[in-house]
Sequence to fold (134 residues):
Amino acid sequence: MTRPAPTITDDNRGFWEAAHDGRLVSQQCSGCGQLRHPPRPMCPYCHSIEHELVELAGTGTVYSYAILHHPQHPAFSYPVIAVLVDLDEGVRLLSNLVGVEPGDVHIDMPVRVTFDETEAGMAVPVFEPMGSST
Ligand SMILES: [Zn+2]
Fold:
C-alpha cells in the first residue's frame, strides 16, 4: 500500500507538480523576495499576492523531530519519523525522515530531499541523512 495522494489546491498545485517531477520548490514573493512555505496566496511579510516558484537545493538540517507510533495508517511502516527540516535557503518544511534508525536521529543532522511515491501517481518530498544511498 502506498502513501495517500496529497490534496491539491490552487495554492499548492505548483509545489506538488514539482514534487511529481522530483523537484523541491518554494514560493518566492515577487514583492519582497521572501521565500515561504507552505504555499499560500499572500505574502506574510509584505502582503503581495504575486509570487513565483523557485527550485531549492533540497539540503538542510533537522530542526526538530518526533517518533510516531500511533495512530497507525496501513500505508506507513512504524515508527514514522516526523521531522522539521530547516532548508539551506531558510525555509522550514514538515516532512518524514527515512533511511535512518529512530535512535540515530539528532537535531542539526544534515539531510537531503528524496521523493516517496503516493497513490494517484504523485510524489511527496521526504528526507534522508546526507551521505546515505536509498
Ligand atoms: Zn513579500
